[in-house]
Specification:
It is a single chain. The protein is of the alpha/beta class. It has 9 helices and 5 strands, in the order E-H-E-H-H-H-E-H-H-E-H-H-E-H. Helix 5 packs across helix 8. The radius of gyration is 17 Å and the shape is globular. The termini are far apart. Bound molecules: 3'-fluoro-3'-deoxythymidine monophosphate and magnesium ion.
Length: 231
């Protein structure tokens, strides 16, 4: 019988790229698995985040909003560690890279001087990747990150946006650039994989993802220590 801990698998990407669909398919491949979605709106901090995302008259400094998303991850820190040690495979639907990418995108978006409700400041912290990663340092680092990427044109053809704070085509264009620039900075990190989902249906994407997971041995229990996010 094998022993060891379960592994931490993160699915990242823009809205409507199929993250949640793939995350739930992936869960069924493991006998012990758990899905965690960030932001987790069910916690105390999560309820403030939910208010921030859904109520545009509820404003916060961008730094505060950024720190709340990180604080929300810290609320689940012990649970993640305990589940992994208990042999669970955890699938994360968004996590630290969404944290950096969406905040960084606000900095660029604010420079366009748009009317709108996305951002409240253009302070330099929000454009500083080192500042942005700071509060996440020490959280469990995913054993594998899959970034689902898609052409913005194909994304625009998928069914409509919701009306939460960040759900604007023009903003998403910038978020995509932010994600790609963050992953470019991390290009020597072999736990990060960019998965192109253009013109692929759900089973094709699942197959791509599962091939990556098995090739890297992420589907098996492991004895490696849980890595931590570094800056
Ligand atoms: N988001 C998500 C952030 O801005 N920072 C974060 O740290 C995380 C985890 O919250 F627009 C953004 C991404 C998205 C919004 O997420 C709500 P869901 O996945 O659409 O619920
Ligand atoms: Mg959304």
């Amino acid at each position: 019988m094998s022993s060891g801990r379960g592994q931490l698998i993160l699915i990242e990407g823009l809205d409507r790229t199929g993250k949640s669909t793939q995350a739930s398919i992936l869960l069924d491949k493991f006998s012990k698995s758990k899905l965690l979605k960030f932001p987790d709106r069910s916690t105390k901090i999560g309820s403030i985040i939910n208010e921030y995302l859904t109520n545009k008259s509820f404003t916060l400094p961008d730094q505060s909003a950024h720190l709340l998303f990180s604080a929300n991850r810290w609320e689940l820190n012990n649970e993640i560690i305990d589940l992994l040690n208990d042999g669970y495979f955890i699938v994360l639907d968004r996590y630290i890279y969404s944290g950096i990418a969406y905040s960084l995108a606000k900095f660029e978006y604010a420079k366009l001087n748009k009317e709108g409700n996305i951002t409240s400041t253009v302070d330099k912290q929000i454009g500083d990747v080192n500042w942005l990663i700071g509060p996440d340092v020490g959280l469990p680092k995913p054993d594998l990150t899959l970034f689902l990427t898609i052409d913005l044109q194909e994304l625009a053809n998928r069914k409509g946006w919701g009306d939460e704070r960040y759900e604007l085509q023009e903003f998403q264009t910038i978020v995509k650039k932010s994600f790609l620039s963050i992953f470019e900075l991390q290009k020597d990190d072999d736990t990060i994989e960019i998965v192109d989902v253009n013109n692929k249906d759900i089973p094709e994407v699942t197959e791509l993802i599962w091939n990556l997971i098995t090739k890297k041995g992420i589907h098996q229990l492991t004895n490696k220590p849980i890595e931590k996010v570094l800056n």
